[in-house]
Amino acid sequence: MPLLEAEDVHRTYRLGRTEVPVLKGASIGVRPGEWVAILGSSGSGKSTLLHLLGGLDRPDAGAVRFRGESISRFSPRRLDRYRNEHVGFVFQFYHLLPELNVLENTMIPAMVGVGRLEWLRRRGEIRERARALLDRFGLSHRVRHRPAELSGGERQRVAIARALMHRPDVLMADEPTGNLDAKTGEAILETLAEQHRAGLTIVMVTHDQWIAARADRIVHLVDGRVA
Amino acid sequence: MAVHTQLLVRRYLTTRIIPLIAVAAVALCTALVIIVVSVMSGFLENLRNSGRTLMGDVVLSRPVQGIPWYGELVRDLEALPGAQAASPLVDTYGLVRMPYPDGPSKDVVTAQVWAIDPESFARVTDFDRTIWWKPAASREDALAMGEDDPRRSIGDGPLNEARAMRDLATGRPGALLGMHVSVANQRQRDGSYRPRVANWWMPRHEVSVTLVPISERGTVSQSNSRTFKVVNEVMSGVFQVDRNRVFIPLKDGQELLRLDEAPVVDTDAEPDADGNYPVVGTSPARATQVLVRARPGTTADELKEQVEKAYEQFWLRASADPARRTKPPAPESVSIMTWNERLRDLIGPVEKERQMMMILFSITGLVCAGLILAIFWAIVAEKTRDIGILRATGAGRGGVMAIFLRYGLAIGVAGALIGTGLAWAVVRNINDIHHALGERAPTWAWAGTFLLAAFAAAGAVRALVRASALGTLLWSVGALALAGVGAGLMLHQGFLMWDPAVYYFATIPSTMDWAAARVIGAGAVVCSVLGAAVPAARAADIDPVRALRYE
Questions:
Q1: pLDDT-based confidence at A193, cuts 50/70/90?
Q2: Of A79, A108, A158, A160, which to mutate for an interface test with B (greatest number of B Cβ within 10 Å)?
Q3: Which ipTM was obtained for this model?
């Protein structure tokens, strides 16, 4: 059974009076431990599909299932919990919180997911997990720095550490190397590959076939449908 | 509440300048309202205290004709369970001929004349405290007096004479004048008084008091005058009293107004060989007011009830006594009021004014709310992407809204606390500030300000050379503002904002109204949260997908 699947999903965006259909019945399944790349040109709907799989958005029609359960029917609160506990996002532009330092940015999913009492009880363990991730990605000397003081590659590694903080079932990466030079991008891809080898399920969106070739399977998205 | 909310609010507060502007705005609005309300509350409190300290708790009054057998009435009143002391007096208006200027022609002033029994009057009011020319009661008081304060060198003589209302050397009756009745005294910055000219220390001189008796039928009789030695002066703090009131001994006042004990003659009978009509009785002495002080634990209203019953008993008893030709006035002819009721015409409008001030100035709370709304609207727009990130990591809409509500709360609390502190500093020192405004600015103040303006101008030039538009603007505005302040200080001649003749008291009330401050501070916090509410709701409604596309 797929870990995560989208079945005949449709999504249309409304911009004022204009309706823009982005997905027109796309279907995709992701097995546990698989690295799937969604490849398509700009405007093909690949980021939208990623957002639907990650619970950031709901389809207008069709269903998205996680372990056989339809997340499209989740209440808003349950959907928030799904994103916090089962999904980790990595974006093209890193999307780190500028006022927080590297360690705090990494711990954000844990801070969001626990209440005050649990934080008091587990903060040592949470800090340790964050430090371990940052150390694994070569950032232990940067924990007190703010995102503005980091290079692009360092920021993306912080974003990956943040995405892995809660040990998600699936890592959603939207053009993770799109804002990096080739060498740095390659380093990021190697980081993702390392996590994949350790058993992490990855869904990656890209418009670059060479980057997509790193994945176990490539899904082509053309005009809102899987080709 | 999730931990990330607290962390983000703390960071937003400490890493940006805009929240500091918001905090400053809330602080200033809060301080403004607290200062105004505190001064008005202090004014109201002073009015209430002045009433009680000047006239006791309950006043029985029958002007002009007065109340006979008042000695018996005073004994009845002092026997009441709620009464501590009672004192009779005669109050009227008269002319006071001052001892100045030099030469045959002297100044004459109108005054409210109170003829009192000083011993009982001191038990009912704070008369003793208001006597001004007396030695310091303690070492601390002595040290607080200026070196040229006459009170440093006088003995107990003026105080003893004031308490006796008599020149103890000659036995002649003495008068006490309100501190501002004569023009001989000059108020010092520390609130003390000095004679303008050394020779014109009033207790060395005499005044002549002229009163006009009015008969029971309402006809005006020949005026009577008497000379009194000025034994002391009084300073109650209530300008209207210190400006107009003169105290003389009760017996002298009664004699001058023909309210003293006198024989009653039968003018219908045949006069004797000397032409005197036969005496058929004695008309008792009268007092136009009796002041009563309540025992601790008894309110003025409770005492008033007891006094009303006591007067009725007194009237019934005296009226039924066939030996008394003169009957006391019926209860309905005697006014019995608490001090609060006596001052109602003054206190009532001030209470209303205070409420109105509090309401009007609380509109500044709406200004705060509007300012916070505008600032937070901009912050939410700026933080759109951050909101998307938080939603992507699992934060709910409630959590996002909580961040901005808590942010607004933090600004409100910080602003309220700072504003309360600022208000306390201003209110505590308000009289010093008022004095400073009343004097010319010292040279160093305006010269120093111009110097700072010159530095700011140099900074503006440097910023201009470096092609920094913001730097040039800020330094230029600073230079202009400082130059304006310097010019203002240089031209400032001093002005009197608090005129005691208008505002009833000699000093501006300088006590914080902490009860009002708590309400006002809480209001500022509520307004800040309300101002943040709309942007917070907007933040919660932001679509995370669109937010993450926001670059």
A1: very high
A2: A108
A3: 0.91
